[in-house]
Fold this sequence. Notes:
Helix content is 77%, strand content 0%. By secondary structure, it is mainly α. Helix 2 (37-56) packs across helix 3.
Amino acid sequence: MTEYIKYFIEILTSVxxxxxxxxxxxxxxxIGNSNHPVVAIIYQITEPILAPLRRILPRVGMxxxxxxxxxxxxxxxxxxxxxx
Length: 84
């Protein structure tokens, strides 16, 4: 049973990292601000992770560092789970 939980957490962290990366790339494109269903899904997946980090991390000029911090935290979680 613990192997299934470990595998689930590894997949979940990977999916979240891809979604955050996709959100960053979409923010650079004109479609990133549209009402496209795929963009809306990506924003719904990533906003619960990024919103708390935005309250903690200050913006550096026009840069939002919360996606980088979120990916860093997810990598740490994935490595801790895989080490178990």
